[in-house]
Write a structure and sequence with these properties.
Elements: E1 4-10, E2 17-18, H1 19-27, E3 32-34, E4 38-43, E5 46-53, E6 69-70, E7 72-78, H2 85-103, E8 106-109, E9 113-114, H3 117-130
Antiparallel strand pairs: 1-7, 1-8, 2-6, 3-4, 4-5, 5-7, 8-9
Helix pairs in contact: 1-2
Length: 136
């Protein structure tokens, strides 16, 4: 989808994110477990973005979280379905940075490419192009 923005938090080579430390890191960002067995970030009862495991099928099993591990996390938002895509994207980036810090992971655009300033600028341009705010 063209209007989907994705940021990943990848585990360092040879490492993974696992168990209750992973769950605590996610919950501490304010994300809530819900629909599709993934996490979502809400503001004013509106879903802004979601988080899935980068390990297929992408969902989390909270009943077996102690045995769960994944190679990364994928945060994503549909920039045309949120009230203010620019603010929502900034919030998603902040959550990704917090997860990378808490889990000793690395920010990525997708799972492979490092998240650079140039890619962030491309995302900002995409937001302005696809999802302009009214009266702007």
């Amino acid at each position: 989808m063209d209007d989907l923005l994705v940021i990943s938090v990848a585990a360092k080579p040879g490492a993974s994110f696992a168990g209750y430390d992973l769950l605590q890191a996610i919950v501490s960002t304010g994300m809530k477990f819900g629909e599709m067995n993934i996490f979502h970030y809400f503001k004013d009862n509106k879903k802004l973005f979601s988080l899935a495991s980068a390990t297929k099928p992408g969902e989390f099993d909270l009943d077996r979280m102690g045995a769960f591990s994944c190679i990364g996390l994928t945060l994503f938002m549909n920039c045309c379905e949120v009230p203010d895509a620019e603010k929502a994207f900034t919030l998603m980036l902040n959550v990704a940075e917090q997860l990378a810090d808490d889990l000793d992971g690395e920010l990525r655009a997708g799972l492979r490419a490092p998240l650079t300033k140039a890619i962030l600028q491309q995302y900002q341009n995409k937001i302005h192009e696809l999802c302009p705010l009214p009266n702007k």
